[in-house]
């Protein structure tokens, strides 16, 4: 997929999904929570307020304004009139000092449940949902009243309250538990597998991918609420602090993985600077929030969100650079980054109150992280495939270069260097046949050098045709050729001589060869010299006897 088209699809998907969620009514924002939604009204706390009075003070409450418009502070949040025997009340996790729930019954009894930071940790369910059990009495519950102190009110004071049965609560935990367990198992297997591969192959991008997967696992661990189950002494606000840090660490690890995975040319110059800026912004914003919150909480949260705007803005820059450099991995990253980019953009839009809070969007990171982990794993597999292709191609080029270095360019036979490389070291007896063209200078004088070269090629074809398949055939230099075969029955030299006599030469010129042979081992350089010297003497004996014939040596001479 071309880079520009891919970027257009990313922007189009981001705009479409943002527009879709922007049209979701506020009362449907908590559609991901189980149970029956509760309508609420808000009133700031005033000195002297009591729960009894606030249960009845209708004029004090604002039921129209969005909760986040009230800003940070202490609030009363009252439900609409109820008549329910629901077992639990569920709300989304928020940053607050404590929240006391007053439960009013039809018989006039009001029960009180206080929840500070430690209580919130014990009350949290999967999906980062606060769940409180409503004591069952003969009379139904008619009203719920929250007294919230120290609410940062980023996205609401009491978000998406719902009444649920125990069965609904258990079903929610079961479903989310299955999803998070599946993601955890997938991530753990990918982490172990790729870390083991890194130990064997030592590619830098493998280690970066392991860091990426580990970061996503830790973020899911903190954002799901499971961290509170494991560390029961951890206050919920501290869990949220860790969650802010881990989402930044995960995003930094994604950019680091991209930087190590793409070709170096993609991150040259200002693209590298822009990526470094985005990673630094994420790190600084997360560190500032972790150290300073709740001091200037809204400002720190806004800086944290802006760091993600910078990171999202860098992604098209990276993809554009990858397209410009014709990266082999561009299409993989477009596919694997599409969901995280779109959902991250929507989360940022939620931060800036462009779209309403949604439980589904708040937990969409699980989907995007799963897609990222799986598709990035496919990207790594594809990278290994390209590495294997490059390795095989390099081997083929090296082999071709080696063959060219060992081959005679005119005839295609082995040259002396290649022949000796292949021949020396054979301990078993071999037959060496040396062939020399008779009166080759006269051939060159008669046909010219081009005609002489054609004669050399014809002789080379004759030698290859007459020699056994396992023979080494070489042009040792000039008009001298050699054939080396394992010692066997049959007269290879006679077959070569007969084949040359049958060949048709340019202008029907008669060309003959003289051959000398010798059998013996070639275990060492000394053996070769002895074998060659004896075969060469046999060759000269053939020439002395009248040429166009074969002479055989009895055995190698001593070196």
What would your notes on this structure say?
By secondary structure, the chain is of the alpha+beta class. It has 3 domains: 3-16 and 168-393, Up-down Bundle (Rhopdopsin 7-helix transmembrane proteins), CATH 1.20.1070; 38-160, Immunoglobulin-like (Sandwich); 416-552, Reverse transcriptase/Diguanylate cyclase domain (Alpha-Beta Plaits, 2-Layer Sandwich). 55% of the residues lie in helices and 17% in strands. It contains 16 helices and 15 strands. It has helices at 3-22, 51-56, 117-123, 166-201, 204-223, 226-230, 236-261, 270-292, 297-324, 330-351, 359-362, 365-406, 416-423, 440-466, 492-502, 525-544; strands at 36-37, 40-44, 73-79, 88-92, 98-105, 110-116, 124-125, 129-133, 141-151, 162-164, 426-437, 472-477, 480-486, 513-522, 550-552. Strands 1-10-4-8-7 form a 5-stranded antiparallel beta sheet. It has a 5-stranded antiparallel beta sheet with strand order 2-3-9-5-6. Strand 14, helix 16 and strand 15 (550-552) form a beta-alpha-beta unit. Helix 5 (204-223) runs antiparallel to helix 7, helix 7 packs antiparallel against helix 8 and helix 9 (297-324) packs antiparallel against helix 10 (330-351).
